[in-house]
Amino acid sequence: MIRRARWPLLVLITLVAPRLGAQRTFDGIVTYKMEMASGQPVETVFMTRGSKVRQETAGSMNVVLYDYSTGAVTMLMPAQRQYATNNFRDLLRVAQRGQTPPPNTTVTVRATGRHETIAGMRCEVYAVGDGRGEGGDACVVTDQGHFMAMEGPAGMASMNEQSPGGGDPRFAAFFRHFKDGALPLRITFGGKTVFLATRVERKALPDALFRAPPGYTQMGR
């Protein structure tokens, strides 16, 4: 009997990105220490090239590939030398089924004039607030292009237990503030540092990292 692949919550954390057209993207590797809704920290490595993202998470035996230009999401299972494919727009519709949509909120983003150095990069601190009375701040690099793994209403799912996998409109509104793209090195919200970059390396990555390796078979076929 063939078991169906179980798409983990972290897959749904990084799903939706805006249409960026010809805007410059950040290509390279960023490692984050992330705090999940459970309060447990986890290290996640994002590798990006154009519209493609590879996600490797400590403690997980699987690797997840995204192609934001097509909506394809592929889970690699190295132990079985198999892969499973889906469309992340379909996954979001399933995740949101039966849930109350999160209310629209107005997000305020204000430059504080402060700077930090994180993972060897200088970033600017922005205060972030919303109509719910919640707030935090983020340290962002704004001259490196769009970081596809975090753009759109994606990563905020890990900060909002009420919308698992459904994204959070505050995250999309935050990134829309940065017209030339944003690479967040730290995001603190609700008193918790939920994303903290520990390594950043801008480099050209081979296309082979973003597709199933030779010899892998598709699950269910």
Total helices: the number is: 3
Number of domains: 1
CATH level 1 name: Mainly Beta
Cα radius of gyration in angstroms: 17 Å
Query: What's the pLDDT, averaged over the residues?
Result: 77
Beta content = 35-45%
Poorly predicted tracts of residues: 7-21, 152-167
- Element order, helices and strands? HEEEEEEHEEEHEEE
Description:
The protein has 221 residues and is mostly beta strands. Helices cover 10% and strands 40% of the residues. It has a twelve-stranded mixed sheet. The protein is globular and about 55 Å long.
Q: How are the SSEs ordered, and which strands pair?
A:
Blueprint: H1 9-13, E1 28-35, E2 41-49, E3 52-57, E4 63-67, E5 72-77, E6 82-87, H2 88-96, E7 107-118, E8 121-130, E9 135-141, H3 169-176, E10 183-189, E11 192-202, E12 217-218
Parallel strand pairs: 6-12
Antiparallel strand pairs: 1-2, 1-11, 2-3, 3-4, 4-5, 5-6, 7-8, 8-9, 9-10, 10-11
Kindly list the characteristics that best describe this protein.
12-stranded mixed sheet; 221 residues; single chain; mainly beta; outer membrane lipoprotein receptor (LolB), chain A; 12 strands; globular
In short:
The chain has helices at 9-13, 88-96, 169-176, and strands spanning 28-35, 41-49, 52-57, 63-67, 72-77, 82-87, 107-118, 121-130, 135-141, 183-189, 192-202, 217-218. By secondary structure, it is mainly beta.
